[in-house]
Recover the amino acids of this structure.
């Protein structure tokens, strides 16, 4: 069984950038212990001669024919754009150097 410790809760809180008070940590610890117990309960099921389920349906890699269809012109594509230079769509800079 996986041990759910206070250190594990603290590590998970740090990774998820969350903070918990002591009461919340206790509740989370209890919930996680119950989840682990539930999942470990599955180890009691006899899966001998049971093939693993790889796909929900028997259909795999169903491809459709690649059909070339018309597209819209650049002018039509830029018609409803808030900012453009006539060729490209202008968007605010989001990456800072």
């Amino acid at each position: 069984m996986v041990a759910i410790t206070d250190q594990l809760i603290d590590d998970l809180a740090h990774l998820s950038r969350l903070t918990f008070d002591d009461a919340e940590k206790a509740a989370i610890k209890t919930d996680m212990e119950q989840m682990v117990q539930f999942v470990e309960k599955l180890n009691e099921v006899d899966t001998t001669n049971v093939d693993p389920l790889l796909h929900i349906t028997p259909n795999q890699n169903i491809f459709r024919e690649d059909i070339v269809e018309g597209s819209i012109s650049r002018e039509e594509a830029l018609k409803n754009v808030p900012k453009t230079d006539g060729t490209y769509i202008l968007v605010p800079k989001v990456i800072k150097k």
